[in-house]
């Protein structure tokens, strides 16, 4: 949380050829629980910091593998737009044993018109976090300056895809680590898989265009125009979604005087 907080004011400076570098991943090295490892990996992906494994691979546990091998989160890191997430807001929450506590909303635009959204709970207890579409697309509304053509993103409906809902279970992860399960690498296998993705066979950008299940996550709900997303987020945890615009259904807001 300390690194993320320090990086927040400057992460928008990252770009292809000059990526943000928050140091290598600590997933699997001890000192964090499972929720904290997921938060760590998710935020490195959102901020576009290189996903360099820092744990001992031969001794990797099933839980560690299932985090590091999540294709839906890796797809955010590898998105062809190369745009880092920015922190939209940061609010106080109950402090933990390190005298830190906050909740924040992070958003990044993705190629093809999708967005990635992270609700981060750095507080000491589980809590419900909410964000309106107007907050999520605040930057779009601000930069439009009243001269944009067509409706703002917040006036459309959006489908929400949970990027952690297809996390590999420990039994399957152990089988993979033991060499008893493989990915054959055929187009049909990749398309139908909800757990694994063969990026050697097909780049992430192409897989997203083809709506490969493992990269999109699980559609959990839809947000109506001008609506609100919400999630119960554990202590030091994260809720992470891909938002995809629905066809039609936009509402027009009356111009303010």
Task: State the gist of this model.
The protein has 257 residues and is α+β, with helices and mostly antiparallel strands.
Spatial strand arrangement across the major sheet: 1-2-3-8-5-6
Judged by helices, strands and strand pairing, the structural class is alpha+beta
- Total of helices: 10
Radius of gyration: 19 Å
The SSE order reads: HHHHEEEEHHEHHHHEEE
Form type? globular
**Could you name the ranges where pLDDT drops below 50 across 5 or more consecutive residues?**
143-147
Instruction: Assign a percent range to the helix content.
Output: 25-40%
Describe the protein in words.
The structure is a single chain. The chain has a 6-stranded antiparallel sheet. A two-stranded antiparallel sheet has the order 4-7. It has 10 helices and 8 strands. The protein is globular. α2 (34-47) runs parallel beside α3 (62-68) and α2 (34-47) packs parallel to α4 (71-77). The relative contact order is 0.18. By secondary structure, it is of the alpha+beta class. The termini are far apart. It has helices at residues 2-7, 34-47, 62-68, 71-77, 133-136, 138-144, 170-177, 187-192, 204-209, 213-216; strands at residues 86-92, 102-109, 115-121, 127-132, 158-162, 218-223, 228-233, 237-245.
